[in-house]
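Researcher: Please predict.
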Amino acid sequence: MKCRVEDSVRDAAVKRSIRVHNHKTSVFVEDAFWLDFVSIAERMGRRITDLASELDERRNAKTLSSAIRLFVLSYHQGRHP
């Protein structure tokens, strides 16, 4: 299967600003993960800033960006807390 340049650009991680623990920080997350993260937070009745802060506190991943991706994956695998 060929990978088109347009697909690579669309799938690239995008820098997003978010408040975590009451300070502004940036995460680099692909659109699919970010949109799903926002949707999951809404389903859980949580603000994304609160959920991101919680993930940051208990993350084993090196970065918050990775923690968000792993959270989305585990949510869909039924392993979310």
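Model: The chain has a mean pLDDT of 88.
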